[in-house]
Amino acid sequence: MRILILGSGGREHALYRKIKESSHARKVFVWPGNGLIPAEDRVRSKAVADSFTELAEFITREKIDFTVVGNEAPLVAGVRDFLKDRFPGHPVFGPDALGAQLEGSKAFSDDFMREAKIPHGTSVIADSLAAALAALPSQDLPLVLKADGLAAGKGVSIHHDLKSAEEKLKEIFDGRIFGDSGNRVLLQKFLHGTEASLFALCNGREAMLLPVARDYKRALTGDLGDNTGGMGAYCPGEHLTEAQKIYVHEKIIEPVLKKFAYRGLLYVGLMIRSERADDLAVVEFNCRFGDPETQSILHLIEGDLLEYLLWTDDAQPQNFPLIKAGSARLVPYRRGSVVNVVLAAKGYPGAIAKDIPLVFPEPSSAELHVTGAGIESQGGKLLSTSGRIANVVAWGKDRDDARARVYAYLEEFSKANSTVTDRLYWREDIAASV
């Protein structure tokens, strides 16, 4: 098969690596990819969400058999709907535009969860600064503010006093820091507990659960600083019991399947309050693989990822082994643990330096690899292009072993890049024992 992956981050690089292992994969392209992906496998062009016509021309010209949508923007813009209309029978990994609204609009998602009686943080939805400020005094602290639309993981802020919340609301509505994505804002009750990310592969009728991961959203060591797209992750996360997985499958994922005939990857961000099966709440839905969790999950799962992805669009029968847990079905994964630490430009998610020249030492083990994100190859040199630059991912016999391998590599990386390390940053506490 000839496969096209849409996206440029560490998530898409991880998908590329894993799909290339499949015996079915003859050629794998990434549009646009990043500087750590071989040039011959990259499609250098404008963002797909800006040019579906150019995408269709590429699929025709290169005889693409399967399109895997990695990031959310094309899905929300309706890329699946477009491709299904243009190429009937062409398999696509990802939901239609309606299903993608679970991520594309926090208000849409909130309305659906309320209707389906899915546990989640109670919200007030405001479509103007005046409405938001009027609702503010009645909110409990700490308070979560969420921009309604897509904001690259940066649209959520937590406030411990009303003054800072008021200032943030003014930045969103008057300063338009999130553009149209901030035309509406959710004022939401803060949820206490332990976060976990559960991914479900869905074919419109059934779901297969991937191993649970845990990611780290705050920018700085000690879980401080602003929210980011993610600074690291580990898998498997130990936070969900088998009873809770069954509960999530029956009470959260199945309602999504029934309402939207959902296909592709459903990301369920959870807050776990205790080990009781129903003592949890949904923090967010995403319509695609999470980044940085994917880099950890895909390095751990067993089986042919390409077959799993094709199954979501009825292009592959379910003839691969799964693990049963009550009504839920789980994708098998190997023993051990995987840790991923994000290498970022200092200052992310705020102002950063770009074009930082980088050198990546050759990993000493096949169980450790580096996936690119905001990085490009120019004139034989690797230069940073955005806040999250790369991911260091390692398997170990347990979480501490995997973590030690990642941070040992980062120490080696630091020495190789000693002239620019003052412009780089990574959290020191990813997967640390608590």
Automatic annotation (TrEMBL):
NCBIfam families: purD. Residues 110-314 form the ATP-grasp domain. Its EC number is 6.3.4.13. This is phosphoribosylamine--glycine ligase. Belongs to the GARS family. Pathway: Purine metabolism; IMP biosynthesis via de novo pathway; N(1)-(5-phospho-D-ribosyl)glycinamide from 5-phospho-alpha-D-ribose 1-diphosphate: step 2/2. Keywords: ATP-binding, Ligase, Nucleotide-binding, Purine biosynthesis. It is an enzyme of class 6 (ligase). PANTHER family: PHOSPHORIBOSYLAMINE--GLYCINE LIGASE, PHOSPHORIBOSYLAMINE--GLYCINE LIGASE, CHLOROPLASTIC. Its cofactor is Mg(2+); Mn(2+). SMART domains: GARS_A (SM01209), GARS_C (SM01210). One of its GO terms (biological process) is 'de novo' IMP biosynthetic process.
